Amino acid sequence: MKKWGDPGVSGVLPICLNDATKAVEYLHMMSKEYVGVCEMHGEFEEKDLRKWVEKLTGVIYQRPPVKSSVKRALRRRTILRFTIEDIVERRFVFRVVTEPGTYIRKLLHDLGLLVGVGAHMVELRRTRDGFLNEDSSSTLLELYAAWYLYSREGDDKLLRRVVRPVEEALKGFPSIYIKDSAVAAVAHGAPLAAKGVSKIDHPLAKGDTVCIKTLKGECVGFGVLTMDSDEVIHAKSGIVATVERVVMDRNLYPKTWG
Amino acid sequence: MRNLVDVLKFRTIVKEEYETDPNYGEYPEKRSVERLLKLGIINLDKPPGPSSHDVSSTVKKILGVEKAGHAGTLEEMGRSRRFRCVTYLP
Question: pTM for this one?
Answer without folding.
Answer: 0.88
